[in-house]
User: Which sequence fits this backbone?
């Protein structure tokens, strides 16, 4: 059983995760259009991870006997001033999602929903990784911009071309 407050909040989170996938796929399309195919690949994998997150919430709702309601997904931005700006937006977005997950944990505590609390711990840990990954790339892109310029940016692009999607540890549920 899941109470209505928790159900509504988790349904909103499904859409947030779907929006995150949209957001990163839009960044991927932007990078495809600017020739940074490695960055595009990294964003595409990031979008796949977000869909995995969405389905993890979806499956949890189902497993608790709740009804998944698919709400509207906003249109993401499609243009950025520079690769650095894109990655800064990734970091800002992940920080926002961390705040949303914290809000869900607070709600689970307030509603004494121990099962939701337990499921959410996976996301608490995942957000540490999400922020760390984004911070690392922002630092690298900033350093490249500060020192040697575009040549190093293309080297970083090559590095990010190697990222592949592997379902995160912890399974789909
Ligand atoms: Fe679903 Fe990137 O957090």
Assistant:
């Amino acid at each position: 059983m899941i109470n209505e407050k928790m159900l509504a909040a988790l349904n909103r989170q499904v859409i947030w995760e779907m929006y995150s996938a949209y957001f990163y796929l839009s960044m991927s399309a932007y990078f495809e259009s600017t020739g940074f195919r490695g960055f595009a690949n990294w964003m595409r994998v990031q979008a796949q991870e977000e869909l995995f997150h969405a389905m993890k919430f979806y499956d949890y709702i189902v497993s608790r006997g709740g009804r998944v309601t698919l709400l509207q997904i906003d249109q993401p931005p499609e243009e950025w001033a520079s690769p650095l700006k894109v990655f800064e937006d990734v970091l800002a977005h992940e920080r926002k999602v961390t705040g949303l997950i914290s809000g869900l944990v607070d709600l689970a505590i307030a509603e004494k929903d121990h099962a939701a609390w337990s499921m959410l711990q996976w996301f608490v840990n995942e957000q540490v990784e999400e922020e760390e990954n984004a911070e690392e790339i922002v630092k690298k892109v900033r350093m490249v911009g500060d020192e040697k310029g575009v040549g190093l940016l293309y080297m970083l692009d090559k590095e990010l071309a190697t990222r592949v999607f592997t379902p995160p540890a912890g399974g789909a549920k």
User: Anything to note?
Assistant: The chain has one domain: 4-70+77-160. Residues 4-70+77-160 form a domain with the Ferritin fold (CATH 1.20.1260.10). The chain has a mean pLDDT of 94.
